[in-house]
Amino acid sequence: MIERLTGVAVAAFGAALFFLITPMATETVGYGWLRPNTVPNVMAVIMMLAGVILALTAPQDQFIDFPKMARAAGFLLVIVAGLWAMVQWRYHFVAPGLALVLMLLVGERRWHWLLIGALVLPFSISFLIEYVLSRPLI
Amino acid sequence: MVDFSVILAGFADAFTPINLMFVVFGVMLGQFVGAMPGIGPVMAMAIAIPFTFVIDPLPAIAFLVGINKGGLVGGAVPAILINTPGTPDAAATAMDGHPLAQQGKPEKATKMALYSSVTGDTFSDIVLVTISAPLALVALKMGPVEILALMVFAFSVIAGLVGKSISKGIIAAALGMLAATVGLDPEHATPRYYFGYFELFDGLPLAAVAIGMLAVAEILRRLASSKKGFSAAIAQQKDMMPEDRRVSFAEYWACRFTMVRGAFIGTILGALPGVGSTAAAFMSYAATKKSSKDPESFGKGNLQGIAAAESANSAVMGANLIPLLTLGIPGSVGAALIISAFVIHGIQPGPLLFEEQGRLVYGLFGAMIMANFANLFVGQLGLRLWSFVIRAPESVIFSTAILLCIAGVYLATGGLFGVIIMLMAAALGYVMTSFGFSPVIFIIAFFLGGRFEIALSQSLVLLDGNVLALINYPIALALFAIALITMVWMIWADRQKEL
Asked: What domain of life is recorded for the organism (chain B) (predicted)?
């Protein structure tokens, strides 16, 4: 069932690209062999066709671990929040905190590993980039 | 043809102490990360690429090649010791390596893996050095129409072979091509899909997309599936008898035909874009078992089984660079990452590379051969050591890897925008993998997409929009026909598999 739904979703995305997104996001040009929208439109049509074929033929069903996917999305949100904090307060102040939060979230409680992961390694990275390579960080 | 003095100069560049240092460091890092289940050389290469920006092209690329080669050897360590391949390539190695380790001979098994890996790798490097320059000469005679046909052929092979389903392979390739159309179009220079972000005029940065889809997506997957109370992935080895710790010359020599066959299979499959080293390892293992007088001994700790798998999966690495260096087509995800290192240094892979950067190419060849020796020596000392040292929990490894990815992409793309693209690519890569779409096809199509559009545009101008004029381009016509046959065969094989 999931395979069929995936096929339908891909076909719908292809249709949205062809009828809505591409006309809006490309310019109309009246000359030349390959217009700006030619390749995007061909890709949209391919996605529509392949999506329909996937939905109709529906091979072995794919198991999707949705709770795990939600967990991964949560980790991604933590990283995005960390990136936002880096923009506000700089990489070398936020990186140890981000590493600590990630380690705590996955259940690490051993203080020596927390120390290494949240202090030694982030400061080593900052030192390597800003002092050894002389490159500016966020 | 490349001047002999250029070849000599290239090899001389390769053997400088600084280059040697980067090769050895790359091999050490590669063996180390290859031995850590879940990290692997591809992720290590992806993370390392932005940092190579500050060093010269040759040591930078030699360093990445060292990681890749070292990773193939390192991947065998957890496969043999705990039946958990560090890299997918080593899955076939576990079939005989782990039973041998269970018999109390883990060092014998890891050493056999090392020797056969270096043998297979050296064989494919020799093939690469010998045939890539003549192949590039042939490629130089090809015009836009032939290059377009070649790309269509490459797409047909890649889409069919990497994924489980041909439809999903095509969808992943179409998505990659679509992502490549972001930015200015090649014929009219009008912006596409930029949604008000002028940073997108240059297109999506390859380093950000590759690191996001391959490294960050995998880290998210590992973080999401982690359980409390991590322990080290590698078990400590027990004491063993001296003869069980080494591979004698007689034992190595007895595997010579197996290794040659494995190297041959790996080289052939490696030269085809998209086939991959895992397929080569299993094919070589199956061929060796089939031709053996004692097939029942396979899966019970037969040294021939380890030799077959390792010689084949390592031979793929050198051969992967044949389409990359001669045609600019990456044959694997590792090769795609090496391409992004070339691009970061302002070098365009393809047939002109031998003319414009001949010295660099032969320097790279020298570095590859040196990396094989480094693999042998580092492996002799390191294989046992890695199993002791790599006891850091995944929580530390992955949180540090995320920090490295953020810092690395910030450096490579020169701003925060690249890091945001990386995180978006990671989300897309995670979803694609979860639903069975290959991010590897996406990346390869993304890389080839821009060139494909340029070749298509030039071809249409040359043909004046008349498809029938293709009759004047017999090589292109033959390549289109082969692509069509390949596609039909792939669909037929896919249908057979489903029935």
From this structure: Bacteria
The reply to whether A28 touches chain B by the CB within 8 Å rule is no
The reply to whether residue B227 touches residue A107, judged by beta carbons under 8 angstroms, is yes
Cβ(A80)–Cβ(B220) below 8 Å: no
CB contact under 8 A, A39 and B398: no
Query: Which of A64, A71, A129 is nearest residue B407 as measured by Cβ atoms?
Result: A129
Helix/strand/coil percent split, chain A, to 5 = 75, 0, 25
The verdict on a CB contact (< 8 Å) between A98 and B185 is no
- Both tokens of A109, joined, read 């409680």
Count contacts between A and B (CB, < 8 Å). 196
CA-to-CA distance for B282 and B175, rounded, in angstroms? 30
User: Structure tokens of B281?
Assistant: 């390892």
pTM of the shown model = 0.74
- Residue B478 has a CB neighbour count (10 Å cut-off) of 13
DSSP state, residue B161 = H
pLDDT in tens, B194-235: 888 888 998 998 878 888 887 788 889 888 887 654 554 444
Q: Which residues of A50-73 are buried (b: 16+ CB within 10 A; e: fewer)?
A: bbbbbbebbbeeeeeeeeebebbe
Q: Which residues pair with B183 in a beta bridge?
A: B192
- Where do we find the tokens 């390694």? A121
Greatest Cα pair distance in chain A: 67
Amino acid at A91: Y
**Tell me, what amino acid is at B289?**
K
Check whether B453 has a pLDDT greater than 50: yes
C-alpha dihedral over A29, A35, A41, A43, to 10 degrees?
A: -150
Q: How far is A115 from chain B (nearest CA, A)?
A: 10
Instruction: Write out the H or E segment, with its range, that includes residue B96.
Output: helix B91-102
pLDDT in tens, B18-34: 888 999 988 988 888 77
Smallest Cβ–Cβ distance between B407 and the set A60, A73, A91 belongs to: A91
Give Cα B294 to chain centroid, integer Å: 33
**Chain B residues whose beta carbon lies within 8 Å of the beta carbon of residue A34:** 185-187, 453, 456-457, 460
Q: Report chain B residues whose CB lies below 8 A from the CB of A26.
A: 185, 190, 192-193
CA distance B37 to chain A (A): 17
